[in-house]
Amino acid sequence: MRWTDFPRHYKPRNKLNETLTFFRQFRERYHTTGSILPSSRFLAKAMTRPLSRRKGPVKMLEIGPGTGAVTKSIVPLLQPEDRFDLVELNESFASHLQKQFERNPAYKRIASISEIHVCPLQEFETDCKYDFMISGLPLNNFSPELVSEIFEVTFRLLAPGGVLSYFEYQYIRTIKKLIVGKTDRNRLKALDAITGKYLAEHRIQRDWVFLNFPPAWVQHLAVKK
Asked: Most buried of the four, 74, 94, 112, 133, by CB within 10 Å?
């Protein structure tokens, strides 16, 4: 079942609840939320493009799913023989997602292979290597040390040939560097260096998504087999 298959009366209410939940958490925890609105379906489609080309059983990890704006595009692409882990730091978002797996027919179809882990990515314990990873973490809000640690953990969890997809708002660091103070400008330059290193070594594709607020790039990085 696809999102567009749900009864017409269901979608607006669920979308409104998702947006209100996201907005409340944005006000309370901007540092770890990063945007005032959930990602658009166009951004979600770009983020899940590598997964949509899957072959055979896969192991999938979503990092920072929030209220599930991208999750609902992941769910139809998974099968009962797959594994789906979600790592979400925000308890309110995790609770919202858990209700989806309990009540939403599309999510219930794969509930037995899915698990939500409420913790930072650095504290996530698993013996699994993932074929696909999708990250919604707001890297531009973090310190260079944390971003470096997140990339290290992410690539440690990727299987050979695995693909990491994450997004960043177009030119946001470039614009911010023109208007912030020296300390934050130096932080953003350090983020450029860290992300630039991984992009230079691992990027296989970049998607431009203009139908999102703000417009975004989706970066797809791969681990060599």
From this structure: 133
**Tokens found for residue 5:** 């298959």
Q: Give 169-187 pLDDT, tens digit per residue.
A: 998 888 889 999 999 999 9
Q: What pLDDT, on a 0 to 100 scale, did the predictor assign at position 37?
A: 65
* Residue 15 CA to its chain's centroid (Å): 18
Q: How many domains does the chain have?
A: 1
Taking the C-alpha atoms of residue 70 and residue 135, their distance in angstroms, rounded to an integer, is: 9
102 phi, psi to nearest 5 deg: -90, -30
Cβ atoms of 95 and 76 within 8 Å: the answer is: no
Neighbours of 109 (CB within 10 A): 17
The Cα 225–Cα 10 span in angstroms is 43
- 207: domain range? 3-222
**Average pLDDT along the chain:** 87
- Full-model pTM: 0.83
| CB burial string 127-152: b at 16+ within 10 A, e below | eeebbbbbbbbbbbebebeebbebbe
Alpha-carbon distances, residue 39 vs 28, 105, 145, 159, 166 (angstroms):
18, 22, 26, 27, 12
Domain containing residue 167: CATH number? 3.40.50.150
The model's pLDDT over 109-135, given as tens digits with 9 standing for 90+, comes to: 999 999 999 999 999 999 999 999 999
The token pair at 79 is 């099968």
* Chain mean position to CA 25: 16
